Amino acid sequence: MTKPSGTSAAKQQAKRAPTSYACAECGMTSIRWVGRCPECQAWGTMAEEGARAPALAMPALVTPRNAAQSISRPDVAVAKARPTGIAELDRVLGGGLVPGAVLLLAGEPGVGKSTLLLEVGQKFAQQNGSPALIVTGEESTSQVRARAERTHTMHAELFLAAENDLGAVLSHLDEVKPGLLILDSVQTIASSTVDGVVGGVPQIRAVTAAITAVAKERGIATVLVGHVTKDGSIAGPRALEHLVDVVLYFEGDRHTSLRMLRAIKNRYGATDEVGCFEMHEEGIDELVDPSGLFVSNRDIAVPGTCVTVTVTGRRPLLSEVQSLVAAYSSAGSARRSVTDLDASRVNMLLAVLGRHAGVQLGDRDVYAASVGGIKITEPSVDLAVLLAIASAAKDIALPSTLCAIGEVSLTGDIRRVSSVQRRLSEAGRLGFRKALVPQGSDWSHIAGMKVIEVPTVSKAWDFVAQL
Asked: What family does this chain come from, according to its entry (predicted)?
């Protein structure tokens, strides 16, 4: 029996080259195909990625382009952020867009990502003296132009291109030479040098790496739009978030006008800021003072309402909690309905209310919700929720100029919360004259406001019942 030639043996070895499979959701790799990803537990997301990488080998030594420098040496080449002209976006970014920085903006379909970025592109072209380029892989240029006319974001230095090929995108960069690139979205762009379907793990990784390299080399501020999965996370491998400098989430309920922009990663600023916007038919507007959306405007106080102050990022926001208590008529247990609040904490507050304040609601239906569509899960709203429910149960209207801040424990104590001074200052600025806070809170005098420290739930209810 003759042995196969060297060429034939190499071909047979290439045919037997093992392949790997990667999860389209989290990027986890496996040597064999499985129906369910062992890492993120998603079904049907394992796709063939190609031959496994060879064993790691040490590369040959090369001369570095730049010598290592002391960290204490001043760097004159540090890029400064350029304001976008949208104050709420600059607040989240830490000052504006940095040349060469790559941002990833994620959000649910229809939340307003493209509308926001269209205004960002128009402001950039208007203020920075360099063109802005929007590359859309999901819409035609006529669709984007129609939206720009409707939202009044037209500008001569704002360029549009509808492309799905990475090579064509790079050609547009050579031709337009923009200072800002907006790629909507990264999952719709494919590279001809990489195998795999559009939006798959290899394609997303290759496209993002190529765009990032070009952006760093030419100093182009780049915004990549990313899709989200059913659970709200960014679609594609987790490596996508590590390749970029800033990761932003654009959130909001399509049934309300409020939109919130948050940063979960920011190499140029803090990640505890939040930007507020309002969507309408003619586009999107920033909300410098959004508290008015979360508080009802009424002249006469009504039972079942209480105002509190939450801290979103570093921004204090006034929020109103509403409650309705009614006798249930159907058989079985009483109903508990909670909207935009933590249902488990509301049930806990009902138990505390009955045990420590003498307000028994076991045989009555209880409804609780926040105003304006904002989700409130911060423990500092416990006292306001409890007082709103007690107010509805006893048919006692709390003063419209009263706000309540504090976390309620199972023992009926009111625990201290952070940023009390900042919360009270915001409430005082908007006309509130009385405030209930936990005993021992760190605060100083605020002109025109009476601050009452209450140690327990019973003391707080006794105080408001006498007003």
From this structure: Belongs to the RecA family. RadA subfamily.
Q: Round to whole Å and give the CA distance between 418 and 463.
A: 23
Count other Cβ atoms within 10 Å, centred on residue 433: 15
Query: What's the residue count for the chain?
Result: 467
Non-local (6+) Cβ contacts of 74 within 8 A are none
Dihedral of alpha carbons 167, 172, 174, 178, sign:
negative
- 68-120, pLDDT tens digit by residue? 878 787 665 556 888 999 999 999 998 899 999 999 999 888 889 999 999 99
Q: Three-state DSSP class for 59?
A: coil
- In one-letter notation, the amino acid at residue 160 is L
d(CA 379, CA 358): 22
Cβ(448)–Cβ(433) below 8 Å: yes
Instruction: Give the separation between CA 163 and CA 157, rounded to whole angstroms.
Output: 19
Binding residues: 107-114
- What is the pTM for the complete model shown? 0.75
Q: How far is CA 345 from the centre of its chain?
A: 23
d(CA 227, CA 230) in angstroms, rounded, equals 10
Tell me the binding residues for ATP. 107-114
Instruction: Please say whether the beta carbons of 131 and 125 come within 8 A.
Output: yes
Q: Are 165 and 199 in contact (CB under 8 A)?
A: no
The whole-angstrom separation of Cα 339 and Cα 346 is: 10
